[in-house]
Amino acid sequence: MAAKDLKVGDKRKAASGSKGKSDGKVKKARLNNSKPPKKATKKEADDFEDFTDSDDGGVKLDTKADNKAAKKTEGSTDAKEFDRTGLTSRESHAKQKQLAQERRAAKPLADEVQRTKRIWEKLRRKSHVPKEERQKLVEELFGIITGRCKDFVLKHDAVRAVQTAIKYSTPEQRKQIANELEGSYAQLAESRYAKFLIGKLLVQNDDEIRDLIIPNFYGKVRKLINHAEASWILDDISRTVATKEHKAILLREWYGPEFTLREMTRDTKPTADLKEILGNEPSKRGPIMKSLLDMINSLIQKKMTGFTMLHDAMLQYFVNTQPGTEEFNEFLELIKGDESGDLLKNMAFTKSGARLSCMLFAYGSSKDRKQLLKTYKDTFVLMSGDPYAHVIILTAYDVIDDTKLVAKSIFPELLGDKEEEVVQNVVGAVNNPNARTTILYLFEGLSKSLFPASHAFDLEVLAEVHEIRKTTSKKDEDLRRKELVAALSPQLLSVIAAAPSELTATAFGCQFVTDALLSEAEDKTKALEAIAQSAAGDPKEEPGEDELSSRPHISRASFGGRMLKSLIQGGKFDKATSKVVQIEPPLEFSNVLYPVIKEYVMDWATGPSSFVVVGMMEAGDFGEVDALKKTLKKNKKSLEKAVTEMTAEQKAAKEAQEEKASTEKGGKKGKKKTEPLVGNAGSKLLLEKL
Predict the structure, then answer these.
(1) Rounded distance, CA 9 to CA 398, Å?
(2) Other beta carbons within 10 Å of 577
(3) Residue 443: strand, helix, or coil
(4) How far apart are CA 236 and CA 72, in angstroms?
């Protein structure tokens, strides 16, 4: 995640419990059983806009100003009750107001704080302050705080002004503030107000400031991760802006106090891989595992289960235990012991947590897997669209032998209940890079079209799961898949019949249609007819300008032509045999499509989707092949013209090819031969078949 996305508690999976509450937004994926942070009143939600003299809520920095303030207020009558004898109510209130003003005036930096407040009140209304005036105000603000930032940052009515100064500062000014506060960031993180200033400094994506701030937390992780305020900013830093080395040093402190001290003098590159650490020092396995488990258990018991660092630590512990051992079983019971389900739901949305959840499914008994599915109830839709959580659904498909339980638990939630809801959900899911895998995985398997390079995490986890299930799952893999497809297909076919135009408008949608119709489902008549009707009309006709969603004809889209050709062939291409493997019973889609496009078949034969007509000529189940041949022979000149003439796109491609060839040879043309471009390749094949 980019550093610019850093916000305290942003996108966090805050668990319930007062000790684990977050100051940021709670991700909607969390959680039915979690208690969200108490909704702030308008006054509280204004992010420290109501300036009072209340306690700052943090740890006091040891500054000279604080020492002077302590001496100045010692023995004063600020806290004493004044004599109200003979005073009316109005006079009493006036006296109270006067004493409050005197107390404020007696505090250190009272005048400076008041000045920063006035400046901040102007700067916060950005649209009302001209740029030149804003620059002057920022300069004045820096003149006040420069050299004494530590005196301001823990005052809740002054830290906002410092944050505003950072917002409008230059890189040099930000570094100046960061250097002034160096050595005190761990204390600032414990303040309910000053911790936001750390986020303001880091969000600027300055590597020098990042490398200055993060080492301030070294040696203090074990303390700060249990602190109600500091834990969230520490975890956000580790999750978003920390480098690989930073993360390793911070996570190593979970392994015991000795790692806290060791990092201070360590010269080599640190690693957080516990397996490697235990391999180098096997004698220390007992203390390390105990320290790690104690830290994990402490946070779980406090309901502070939304931390990415916690999930990283849990994964390290789990992969270093042996299945079937007492250590392994106790850890499983610790995770299952969270009755609220917050822990497992939080884990689903982080990389380490999702991998650990998949391994729990793979190693678990049938009873454990049923409990896991129950825990994720009402969360599957959010999980399906998440970069990590969706792989948990795929793992459930792969390892749970009770396919009726899977179909009953997952499919109704992913697809919905009402017909309109099902159509909307499926159309949305098939066009989402993550959610589409939860539907098409049962048809495509581990195909590259479904899992491109960007889904390397999915492939890595699923390979691990497939290896584990060899000893933990009994049902045959193909049988499990067929049973799930049989349960899912009827609803998918009804969606195709209800919304063919929406699905065929995108490449992902066309892939979904192809997979669903080439599956082993029964009664595809309505779906096939709907797809055929989506190809109706004149391929050359332009969409009207007044249409809300004007789309080109399906024949003009390369993915639309490929989909129709695949359906005509009635099966998928097998690389091993270099043949199309037909499904049973055959689709016979040619007989459904030809009557729809018959009137414009020559436009198809000479257009971008000419291979659709080629497919009809080659289809063994096409009943009107003779009529099609007769039409093509009658319009042979049109085919010949399409072969010899290049389209505008082909001409542009040829020019680009020639230009590239000339530039690669220093502008000397003719040195490199360009590939000859012909006109319509499909039309050429049709001529050969005639």
Answers:
(1) 34
(2) 8
(3) helix
(4) 39
Of 618, 583, 615, 620, nearest to 597 by C-alpha is 615
> Tokens standing for 417?
């209940």
pLDDT in tens, 85-97: 667 887 778 777 7
Question: What's the CA gap between 166 and 178, in Å, rounded?
Answer: 10
DSSP secondary structure string, 337-366? T-TT-HHHHHHTTSHHHHHHHHHHHHHS-H
Phi-psi region of 219 (alpha: psi -120 to 50; beta: other; left: phi over 0): left
Alpha-carbon distance 414 to 422, whole Å? Answer: 9
Check residue 141 and give its pLDDT: 84
pLDDT at 69: 45
Q: C-alpha angle 555/557/561, rounded to 5°?
A: 55
Nearest 10 degrees: Cα torsion 404, 408, 410, 416: 140
- Residue 580 — very low, low, confident or very high, per pLDDT cuts 50/70/90? confident
> What is the residue whose two structure tokens read 């106090």?
257
Cα gap 372→359, rounded to integer Å: 12
Burial category of 669 from C-beta neighbours within 10 Å (exposed 0-12, middle 13-18, buried 19 and up): exposed
CA triple 394-328-305, angle to 5 deg: 65
- Give pLDDT tens digits for 519-529: 887 789 999 99
pTM (2 d.p.):
0.80
Task: Report the alpha-carbon distance of residue 186 to residue 234 in Å, rounded.
Answer: 9
**Using N-to-C axis directions, what is the helix angle for 230-240 and 308-319, rounded to 10°?**
70
Q: Delimit the domains of the chain by residue range.
A: 6-34+97-347, 555-690
- The SS3 call for residue 579 is strand
Q: Which stretch of DSSP H or E encloses residue 601?
A: helix 601-605
